[in-house]
Amino acid sequence: MIVVRALGPADVSVNGAAAPAKLLWKKNLALLIYLARSPRRVRTREHLIGLLWGEKPEEKARHSLNEAVHVLRLCAGDDGFESDTAQVRIAPGTVELDTDTLETLAAAGDYAGAAALINGDFLEGFSVRGASEFDNWLAAERQHWCRRSVDVLVHRAEQLLAAGHVVAAHDTVQRARELDWRPETAVRSALRTLALAGDRSGALALFKEFATRLKQDLGAEPDAETRALAERVRLEKTWRLPQAVGDADARRSGSRRAPLVGRALELERLTGAWTACRAKRRATVAVIEGDAGAGKTRLAEELAARARLDGAVVAAVRAVAADRSDAWSGVFGIARGGLLDAPGVAGAPPDALAQLRGTAPPGALGRALAEVLQAVADERPVVVFVDDAHWLDRESLLALGAVIRDLVRAPVAFLFTVAPHPTDPELDEVRARIGREVAGTAVQLGGFGTDEVRELGRWALPSYGEGQLDRLTRRVLADSAGIPLLVVALLHAVAAGFEPHDAHQPWPKPTETFEQTLPGDLPDNVVAAIRINFRRLSAEAQRVLVAAAVLEGRVPGPRLGRAAGVAGEGLPQALDELEWQGWLAAERRGYAFVARIVCEVIERDMVTPGQRQRILELAGRSA
């Protein structure tokens, strides 16, 4: 069989070996590929002569065609090419073209396999002197396969994005844009990859460069969909990181924020549920369950970020333990977490808005929430994101259950992260309805295994060889018990020069979860890693984090600033640094530690009695 790779510089093999030199002669190769791309792989002799030998006298042209067919037969066997006085035909199974393989793979949804075949323009750098008709055909083929290649690469980039592989998605869409900078599907994909990587400025710079070039070269403007996406990117959060932190991230061509690893299937299920919610305009419930440190918040934030880029309103609230005894705090948190600022909210009944704003006496808050959500959803899809929903007050949980029933035909996705313990009857009832009364999905997050830790180790320590990675993976798994939060903490510490020593006993105890673990029960390597990573923070971020540990729970940003003695531009930079690096989680009402155990380690090991007293005094609390 003759195998031709035409998506890039021509590459030809015959029965698995390099093609004979005669087959690679320009007109012989042109004839082979042209026939393989022809309808039913057959052409008349007259047509082929006009295509490749039109400049020759007829007798010489026919002789040249016969010689070329003879070479093809020598390579493929006598049965590979059928010819008579009128036609030349390629027999079935004689020639395999990568373009045909690409179409087969793409039709089956295997965009990974299809994208792997693309290595450049169709027959890149190839031309045939004195064959203008062939060159005209080749130009048309290049245009066609450029469009198809861009389409395949964009589909592959979107698949990678759906699985959380943002860097790979960006690299893939860059390949598409190198083939052709004009398709706006590729531009939009590139904007999404940069935005999801946290590079808002890079995304906006790309859009500006594209719009400028489009105007200069084609006298056109980006289409409405591309402009809308760019505007949504513009509204994304700007990370106000200290210059030293930003410079360090730039030097390592990435970020201290670890890539999403080991969660591809879960993210695909969540994005699938969200896509169906938008397309079918129906309520959807997505539940992410896992122990503390399993990455529930990170996974939910990935989905919420995609939803915002899709044009959705995201109303987010993060519950803390104190909320369980604060009636209706969850509903008010959702209202103030983005719902009351959303487009379309003016269409809600005034009394419902007054209820949620707290400007009217308490009434039917659950009904008010449903009415406002419906008004907003009439204009654009909505995501209600409740982080650590197991800490919500009972009144809010019951209200959310009723709202889900009431809005079953509205494009509203309810996204909950929950811990497996303690169990909550109201949350259990919501989960039980998924797939029966309401669409949605539930995913459970476990710990990392060898493959995930190794992948993160390769990211954190790119200079390590395979043997070093093997040893590091075993050590980190033993110390972290596979808990993602601790895996990342240990790898950051090792990257900073920490050398973990052998552990003396396994942990956590069989009867305890990570959330139930006390600081004194943590392995020494984990505690050392937390201390090292703390010391790598900017001075202002260290002070703010110490204040957050002393004050506990959810603390408003201004109060943290007062307690830490950090003011001016230093405060938002410190808060963004702590959020970006995964120490604190933020919402409209304040900041809280991502993991209780880390808070306790900071308070135990990084706070002196005098500091604690001063922090409490500055915050307006007594010791």
Task: Walk me through the structure.
- The structure is a single chain.
- The protein is of the alpha/beta class and 623 residues long.
- It is built from 27 helices and 14 strands.
- The protein has a five-stranded parallel sheet with strand order 9-10-11-8-12, sandwiched between helices. A four-stranded mixed sheet has the order 3-2-1-7. A three-stranded antiparallel sheet has the order 4-6-5.
- The radius of gyration is 31 Å and the shape is elongated.
Unreliable sequence segments:
250-254
The rough form would be described as elongated
The residue-averaged pLDDT reads: 92
What percent of residues are in strands?
Answer: 5-15%
Report the total helices: 27
Helix/strand structural class: alpha/beta
Number of strands: 14
* Helix content bin: 40-55%
Main sheet: strands, sense, barrel? 5 strands, parallel
Strand order of the largest sheet: 9-10-11-8-12
Rg over CA atoms, rounded to whole Å, is 31 Å
Cα end-to-end separation:
83 Å
Provide a short characterization of the protein structure.
The protein is an alpha/beta fold and 623 residues long. Helix content is 55%, strand content 10%.
What descriptive keywords fit this protein?
four-stranded mixed β-sheet, alpha/beta, 623 residues, 27 helices, 55% helix
Task: List strands and helices in order, with pairings.
Layout lengths: L1 E4 L5 E4 L2 E2 L7 H12 L4 E3 H8 L5 H19 L4 E3 L3 E4 L4 E3 H10 L3 H6 L15 H31 L3 H14 L4 H13 L3 H19 L5 H12 L7 H9 L12 H17 L3 E7 L5 H14 L3 E6 L10 H11 L10 H8 L7 H13 L4 E6 L6 H13 L5 E7 L6 H9 L5 E7 L4 H11 L5 H15 L3 H12 L28 H12 L3 H13 L5 H8 L5 H11 L3 E4 L2 E4 L2 H10 L3 H11 L4
Parallel strand pairs: 1-7, 8-11, 8-12, 9-10, 10-11
Antiparallel strand pairs: 1-2, 2-3, 4-6, 5-6, 13-14
